[in-house]
Amino acid sequence: xxxxxxxxxxxxxxxxxxGLSCAASGFTFSTYAMHWVRQAPGKGLExxxxxxxxxxxxxxxxxxxGRFTVSRDNSKxxxxxxxxxxxxxxxxxYYCARGYCSSGRCYPNDAFDIWGQGTMVxxxx
Amino acid sequence: xSVLTQPPSVSGAPGQRVTISCTGSSSNIGxxxxxxxxxHLPGTAPKLLIYGNSNRPxxxxxxxxxxxxxxxxxxxxxxxxxxxxxxxxxxSYDSSLxxxxxxxxTKLTVL
Lengths: 125, 111
Fold this sequence. Notes:
The complex is a heterodimer. By secondary structure, chain A is mainly β.
């Protein structure tokens, strides 16, 4: 079964750091670009970051640029998001998603065809 | 405020047809970047409904269709069912922002 499972969410103080993980299974992880998306309470989906198949090309939303770092370990089928200088407005459910591209010329605007169930990050003192 | 504008809400009776618009500009949809659509039920993972403007992934009913023209895209749902009640989001790329963007989302209510 194709699956993504996020972990690492929790409570963190403002200004703190937290690392999220996304475990992939059921597909050849190294052949897909991967992405992070979040949804704050009562808000819509917000794009955060993308990483290409071998990690050489990354993108970040302006809201997290310089504070968040995306990485991947294809040998472990793992995707990561290291978050720093966390703010109250970073409180959200964080999703990882697999990128799908039918034309070969999509990245980073892939369609996100497989999503994890999400992990909650709470930023509060 | 997203660069892709969606109506906050739409509604329709069972069996009816509804459309959800996604209005952009010359730096995103009008620049020929693909539009993708998602359905999101609270507490669940978003689901890809339409990719590449008008293509349906396997398993998505033919009641869902997508189109794009100029600087706008639309998601149409025919034969509305109670289970369609959810939030719907469009996604594209914006060259001014140099990044992927989501629309603000539209809440569909089945009356």
